[in-house]
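Changelog note: in this version the structure field was regenerated for every chain. One regenerated record is shown below for reference.
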Amino acid sequence: MDIRQLRYFITVVQEGQITLAAKKLNMAQPPLSQQLKNMETEIGAKLLSRNGRKLELTEAGHLLYQKGLHLLDRFDETITAVKETGEGLSGTLSIGCVMSCIHYLPERIRAFNDTYPQVKVKILAGDPYRLTDYIYERSIEAAIVRSPLNTENFNTIELDIDPFVFIAPKAWEQLPSGSKIAMRDISELPLIALHRVNGVGVYEVVLEEFNRHGLEPNYVCESPDATILLSMVKAGIGGVLLPKSVLFNFSKENLRVFEIIDSSAETTTSIIWQKERYLSKAAKRFIELFTDEYPST
């Protein structure tokens, strides 16, 4: 068995059908089927079984898939490392970013592009849960994320600690005249929640803060997208508690922003990358920009 055959097998598993895998590999279906048969003959065990139109892993196939993924990762990392032995950098740097943290990127990407013009930067967006999956899958090498997040398997550079503020429609007449508000006053207003699809996030941080005060939030709407939430706020549907820096990306027109006088809720923004995994030279150079004094807005 060689690396090429192993890559064929893993693609078939990930696509679930030989037809789809052949299309992704830019090859005809019969030669791909023959390669799989050759692998099973060499190993002496069946790797895949058919369940209707879908292929499923046997016990031997599952073991080969898990070990094969690790082997291909190491192989690809080795090829990248060898290619990077020269002085120049080229290729694609793939990174991820939570949308509410996008203000950390423009100046740093500009500086990176000025220094390494042959490297194309690809940015994937998502919540922290999705971005860590992207790192594990090697779709990206690093990501800018907000807490709460389990970073046990990641190296991190802390970028900022961000307090929560209350953002409300400017047209609301029931708001305080000043720039500060208390949690009890917030709890009596209709609220919109930033609720990610998977994992623990800002929603739980806010809910814990209400619980700490013995209060229950009056949620009338929720979404995992901060842009949608702020549109709902501008429309007068409700107010929202968000990390203060989220507003770097949005217009404050028709909004009022309040400091919460009795809240200790906060999030930490960090850039993360996986421990004990090869990091490309381009990724290392990009991460170094977060240890220097580059503006974030």
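Spot check on this record: DSSP finds ten helices and twelve strands in the chain. Confidence is low (pLDDT under 50) at residues 293-297.
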